């Protein structure tokens, strides 16, 4: 009899600044193709950002788009794409046994800022304030919009985990399946952040907003001349199932989630703590029942902030030392920081490595910071390796929240 605690990924739906499905996303990662550009935003004018180019009308009507949110639209697109990719027949499924668990960084800022901007044009007459404001800004909105669109009656909620939230959504899905609270989980992370001027203004005033004459080179983790975050949006929803259910329907398995951990720095509002990050990685490895030397790929959190990158590299050295078979890469160099989506989106971009044995590179590293010079850091060109059996995914956030996932190549 199969171990009912074994949870696998059987479907992936995503949208990123450089791709709207896993095949396109992966192809652009291996090709070194950035999705970062420039957009106009209220009060700040032109800013560097990563914005997705998916078709929101593929699964929604125009009326639904007007009533809902950008985050909800991203979530709906990704959830439908994940179900389609999994080959599940949603119409015949027991929708009361499907759970939706989506990580978010923040939600409601976009809608609130737009409403304030709009009433300013009418001398702050509140009669023009949208009556849709409340359901748009409640914290469960992105997940709740998915239930309305897809007719899912099982549990739904969002997990506010700052930039660690994408991993947290997946972790919650794993836990609920193991507890048999649900039979299927739609889990991952969502972000709509570039559509709010406040995030750009805050990062700029903090001295942490990336700048570069070429927007595609603005996101440059580990480069000595890195100067901050590229604010981006994105989404990734995975279908998670118990292995027994996946095998019963002969599903494609992308990978098995075998370990995870979350902890808190209890250190600073913004600055990271390398020791706590190392502890989080070690705890995830312990739960997975493997050692650091077993890990083949580390997808780094690396946001291209000077202190953040150094702290993570310090933590990785503490845990992994000079492991000769552990390769390190970064995905934000292509798409910027997709905030609540980052953990899930960056993880799935690496899952094809289980089959093709290629580690996608970190781009935009022209002058490697010696403090970020990790052993086997893959930069500027992809690296073919002998095997990929285990991937570790780091995702860290403000107020000192850390999350780590370990995924194994599926072997029955």
Query: Which structural class is indicated by helix and strand composition?
Result: alpha/beta
**What is the string of SSEs from the N terminus onward?**
EHEEHHEHHHEHEHEEHEHEHEHHHEEEE
Q: In total, how many beta strands?
A: 15
CATH class division of the largest domain: Alpha Beta
Q: Strand fraction band?
A: 15-25%
Number of helices: 14
Task: Detail the topology: elements first, then pairings.
Layout (H helix, E strand, L loop, with lengths): L6 E9 L6 H9 L5 E6 L3 E6 L11 H6 L2 H17 L11 E7 L4 H12 L12 H5 L3 H10 L5 E5 L4 H14 L5 E8 L5 H10 L24 E2 L1 E9 H6 L6 E10 L9 H15 L8 E4 L5 H15 L6 E4 L1 H4 L6 H9 L2 H4 L1 E2 L23 E2 L5 E8 L3 E8 L4
Parallel strand pairs: 3-7, 4-5, 4-6, 10-11, 10-14
Antiparallel strand pairs: 1-8, 1-9, 2-3, 6-8, 9-15, 12-13, 14-15
Structure description:
This protein is α/β, with parallel strands linked by helices. It folds into two domains: 7-248, Peroxisomal Thiolase, Chain A, domain 1 (3-Layer(aba) Sandwich), CATH 3.40.47.10; 260-408, 3-Layer(aba) Sandwich (Peroxisomal Thiolase, Chain A, domain 1), CATH 3.40.47. The chain has 14 helices and 15 strands. The protein has helices spanning 22-30, 62-67, 70-86, 109-120, 133-137, 141-150, 165-178, 197-206, 243-248, 274-288, 306-320, 332-335, 342-350, 353-356; strands at 7-15, 36-41, 45-50, 98-104, 156-160, 184-191, 231-232, 234-242, 255-264, 297-300, 327-330, 358-359, 383-384, 390-397, 401-408. The radius of gyration is 20 Å and the shape is globular. The mean pLDDT is 96.
């Amino acid at each position: 009899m199969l171990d009912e605690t074994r949870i696998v990924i059987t479907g992936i739906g995503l949208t990123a600044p450089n791709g709207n499905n896993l095949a396109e996303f992966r192809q652009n990662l291996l090709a070194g193709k950035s999705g970062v550009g420039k957009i106009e935003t209220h009060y700040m004018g032109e800013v560097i950002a990563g914005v997705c180019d998916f078709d929101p009308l593929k699964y929604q009507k125009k009326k639904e788009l007007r009533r809902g949110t950008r985050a909800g639209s991203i979530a709906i697109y990704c959830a439908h794409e994940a179900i389609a990719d999994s080959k599940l027949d949603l119409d015949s499924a027991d929708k009361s046994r499907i759970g939706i668990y989506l990580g978010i960084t923040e939600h409601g800022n976009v809608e609130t800022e737009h409403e304030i901007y709009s009433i300013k044009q009418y001398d702050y007459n509140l009669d023009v304030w949208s009556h849709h404001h409340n359901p748009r800004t409640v914290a469960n909105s992105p997940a709740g919009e998915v239930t309305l669109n897809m007719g899912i009656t099982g549990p739904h909620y969002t997990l506010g985990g700052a930039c660690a939230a994408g991993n947290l959504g997946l972790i919650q899905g794993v836990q609920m399946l193991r507890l048999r609270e649900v039979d299927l989980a739609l889990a991952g992370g969502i972000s709509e952040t570039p559509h709010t001027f406040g995030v750009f203004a805050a990062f700029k005033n903090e001295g942490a907003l990336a700048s570069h004459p070429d927007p595609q080179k603005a996101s440059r983790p580990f480069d000595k001349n890195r100067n901050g975050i590229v604010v981006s949006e994105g989404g990734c929803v995975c279908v998670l199932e118990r292995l027994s259910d996946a095998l019963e329907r002969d599903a494609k398995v992308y990978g098995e989630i075998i370990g995870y951990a979350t902890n808190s720095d209890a250190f600073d509002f913004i600055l990271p703590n390398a020791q706590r990050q190392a502890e989080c990685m070690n705890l995830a490895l312990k739960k997975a029942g493997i050692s650091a030397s077993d890990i083949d790929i580390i997808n780094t959190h690396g946001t291209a902030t000077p202190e953040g990158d150094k702290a993570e590299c310090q933590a990785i050295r503490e845990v992994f030392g000079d492991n000769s078979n552990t390769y390190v890469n970064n995905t934000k160099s292509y798409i910027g920081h997709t905030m609540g989506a980052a953990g899930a989106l960056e993880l799935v971009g690496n899952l094809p490595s289980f089959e093709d044995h290629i580690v996608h590179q970190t781009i935009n590293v022209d002058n490697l910071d010696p403090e970020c010079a990790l052993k086997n850091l893959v930069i500027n060109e992809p690296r073919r390796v002998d095997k990929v059996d285990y991937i570790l995914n780091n995702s860290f956030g403000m107020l000192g929240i850390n999350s780590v996932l370990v995924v194994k190549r599926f072997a029955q």
